[in-house]
Structures are given as structure tokens and as C-alpha cells.
Specification:
With 391 residues, the protein is α+β, with helices and mostly antiparallel strands. Helices cover 34% and strands 19% of the residues. The longest helix is centred in the middle third of the chain and has 22 residues, at 124-145. It binds flavin mononucleotide. The site of flavin mononucleotide has 10 residues, from strand 3.
Length: 391
């Protein structure tokens, strides 16, 4: 869930709050988290120079086409790649022996094999830059995860940067990465269009795309709901009516889960509510359990929310409701995969979905004003007018 939100939130931020310094602890957290990035043979061929001193920042800015974010951000990382990091003596190799994955005698053969990969099959520079790029991307997502924003830059003079910051000749300056807090008094331009699946994917062998659609289907489909005075984005992609609903797992009780596929031994009505602690969500759940009773024989019903299964159980017992109420608290799979996760709040939006036994979405009602109840009659009309079971 956090990952999805991170993908959508991350932007190359042009306007940083000035005079906002980043404590070393925050930087350490970001760098250590980003260090989980994958690298070939786990060689991690990357290093960083952190430029945070005002004079040093101004100096770096001069070698980077005078890009203001370098002096306005809290710090700029010079992301370095080491084309020789795969060589013998790489400390990461030792852990294979320590952990018993490999005998000490096998180490020599292994390091020779690794050397061959990055010299015979690949150019060492490319090996280093490919890996450092993964690290750079991870730094941006790690920063976002800790509440910081970033801007990557390739617009700089690498030779000048090397000389100014005493960087050895054999290292490659892959990118600059400014980190700081977005200045929310400013507005970023809309996110640029992206190539989508049809623009870039060939199946099994290469086919050039016929024409570019240049949409950003994920972002452009994001809908919002109103919560008080706030318009809040919904994270994820809502399946269209007529499309299969992505499978998801819900918690019945702690330690016991159920998937959408398991709930589909007949058509399924899903009533999703933000929290059973609020009167509107309680009303919705009680009313559906009354109104849909008549359909009990043929159709399955489930309410879902991000409340704990304990709170859901208490509510069920208090109100004498005997239809299932399941929790999306662990991983928010339902909310995010059905495009119903309220950004920044982490709760499920209010909606009603009808899924047929084949798992295809047949009806969808999103309640755009979170504080309002759904249109129950519309759901009943749909159920009355449509054949959902094979009888
Ligand atoms: C490797 C790399 C180098 C970039 N160099 C620059 C740069 O020098 N100056 C700049 O303003 N933006 C630079 N960008 C930012 C891109 O313009 C930006 O990522 C792109 O327009 C998409 O916008 P978004 O990151 O907000 O989604 C760079 C991005 C990457 C990944």
C-alpha cells in the first residue's frame, strides 16, 4: 500500500523549502533503506558524496547549469558508480562463505566467474552505471517513504564535479540527486504523460509500436472522494464494469484469511466502508444486511473495511449481523487493487461492487461524498434486473 502511494507521490520536485536542513539521522535512514536495492552479484557498485554546506552547494550549482534546486534543497547527493567494484576483495563476497553458502576454496572460481561477467560479457562502465541507477531510484523512493522529496539530475559537467569534489578519476558520476522538503506554497506542473503498456510492450519478439498513445493510465484513472472540505485521491486502478476484479486477500480473524476467489462460489455483493466506528458506515452495513436478506440464497455478501477484525466482530455481535464482515487491514489489498484506497488516510472508500461468479465486475457504485450513504435502491434495482446466477 505504502509502495503504491510512494509511486504516485514521487515527483521531481523543482521547488524546495529553503533553509530546511536534513539531519544526518534522516539521511542515514534514507541511504540505508536505499541500500536494499538489488545489484548484480550483490556488488553494490555505488558511493555517495553529500553536498550540504552552502558554499559547496553553490559551487556544485555552477557546474550543473545553475539549477536552483541544488542550493534550495537540503542537500544534493553526488551518486557515484565504481566500474571495478566487482573485483576480487569485494567484502560482500565473504558473507557467502561465512553463511555456509560456499566453501572458501570455491571463492576463487566464483570471483573469476564474476569478473568474466563484467569484463567479457559487459563493459565495466555499463555494469556500474546500471547498478547505480537502481540505487538512485531506491534513494528517491526511500526519501519519499521518510517524508522527503527529491530531484534527479543529469544536467551537469561530470569532469568539473569530479575535480571540485576530489572524486577519483576511475569513478563515474552518474547523477546528482537533490533531497529536501517540497515547498507547498508552490505548485508543480502536471505530471507529464507516460508511455503505457501498448506503447512499449511486445510479446515474445520485438515489434515496433504503431503509434504512441502517451497516456498515463494509472494516474489518469485516479478518482477522488470528498471528505469534509478535502478532495482526496483514491489510490489504485478501479476495474471497469465488464472487467475481471483482481484477486485480493482479506482477514477474517487474525491468522485466518480469505481470498476473493474463495468468496466466489456464487455472485458476490461487496459493500466497502471506511470505518465501522462511524454512524454512516454502521447504517450502510445494517441497511444492506436487512435489504439484501431476500437474496441470501443465491448471492453472497460481504462488508469490508480497514477496521481490525476485533472491532468488526464487536460490531457484528452488538448489531446481530450474521453476514460476513472482513478486514482489509493487512496490506490493504482490496482497497489498493480496486482503486479505493483513500490517499493519506489509508482507509477504504465507500463503494458497492457486484462481482459475478466468474469474477467479473458487473456493478460499481462509488460514493463520492464519504459522509453520505450509497444509493441502496440502485443496487437493489441492479440485482432485481440482472441474472447473476446460472439457474
Ligand atoms: C537520470 C535523470 C536525469 C534527470 N536530469 C534532470 C536535470 O538535469 N534537470 C531537471 O530539471 N530534471 C532532470 N530530470 C527529471 C526529469 O525531467 C523528470 O523525472 C521527468 O520529467 C518526469 O517527471 P517526474 O519525475 O516529476 O515524474 C532527470 C531525471 C532522471 C531520471
Amino acid at each position: 500500500m505504502e509502495t503504491l502511494e510512494n509511486f504516485i507521490r514521487r515527483r521531481s520536485v523543482n521547488f524546495f523549502k529553503e533553509d530546511c536542513s536534513m539531519q544526518k539521522e534522516a539521511l542515514r535512514n534514507i541511504v540505508n533503506l536505499a541500500g536494499l536495492a538489488p545489484s548484480s552479484s550483490n556488488t553494490q557498485p555505488w558511493e555517495l558524496v553529500v553536498v550540504e554546506d552552502p558554499e559547496a552547494k553553490a559551487n556544485l550549482r555552477e557546474s550543473a547549469f545553475d539549477q536552483p534546486k541544488i542550493t534550495e534543497s537540503s542537500c544534493t547527493l553526488i551518486v557515484l558508480a565504481d566500474p571495478e567494484a566487482y573485483k576480487k576483495g569485494n567484502p560482500t563476497y565473504g558473507s557467502f562463505v561465512e553463511r555456509g553458502y560456499m566453501e572458501a576454496e570455491e571463492m576463487e572460481g566464483y570471483t573469476e566467474m564474476v569478473e568474466g561477467l563484467y569484463t567479457d560479457l559487459e563493459k565495466p562502465d555499463r555494469y556500474a552505471v546500471k547498478n547505480a541507477a537502481f540505487f538512485g531510484m531506491s534513494l528517491m523512493y526511500a526519501a519519499e517513504a521518510y517524508g522527503w522529496q527529491s530531484h534527479p539530475m543529469i544536467g551537469f559537467n561530470p569532469q568539473e564535479v569530479k575535480e571540485k569534489f576530489d572524486i577519483p578519476e576511475d569513478l563515474i558520476v552518474t547523477m546528482l540527486l537533490s533531497l529536501g522538503k517540497f515547498d507547498d506554497e508552490t505548485t508543480l506542473l502536471q505530471r507529464n504523460r507516460r508511455k503505457n503498456f501498448t506503447d512499449i510492450v511486445s510479446m515474445n519478439s520485438y515489434n515496433p509500436p504503431e503509434k504512441l498513445e502517451l497516456k498515463n493510465p494509472f494516474v489518469e484513472q485516479i478518482k477522488s472522494v470528498k471528505m469534509g472540505d478535502d478532495n482526496l485521491n483514491l489510490i489504485g486502478v478501479q476495474p471497469e464494469v465488464g472487467e475481471p476484479v483482481p484477486d485480493f486477500e482479506l482477514m477474517k480473524v487474525p491468522g485466518q484469511t480469505v481470498t476473493l476467489a474463495e468468496l466466489l462460489d456464487g455472485p458476490l455483493v461487496i459493500s466497502s466502508v471506511p470505518s465501522l466506528d462511524t454512524p454512516v458506515c454502521q447504517q450502510q452495513t445494517k441497511k444492506f444486511s436487512q435489504k439484501l436478506k431476500n437474496y441470501d440464497e443465491k448471492i453472497n455478501f460481504v462488508t469490508m473495511s480497514c477496521d481490525t477484525p476485533f472491532a468488526q466482530q464487536r460490531f457484528k455481535e452488538k448489531e446481530g449481523i450474521d453476514w460476513p464482515i472482513y478486514s482489509d487491514i493487512n496490506g490493504r489489498q482490496f482497497s489498493s487493487r480496486c482503486g479505493l484506497l483513500i490517499e493519506g488516510v489509508g482507509l477504504t472508500a465507500r463503494a458497492v461492487m457486484v462481482v459475478d461468479q466468474a469474477g467479473v465486475l458487473r456493478y460499481f457504485q462509488l460514493v463520492e461524498e464519504v459522509g453520505e450513504e450509497p444509493d441502496y435502491q440502485d443496487v437493489e434495482n441492479f440485482l432485481n434486473e440482472n441474472q447473476l446466477t446460472d439457474s
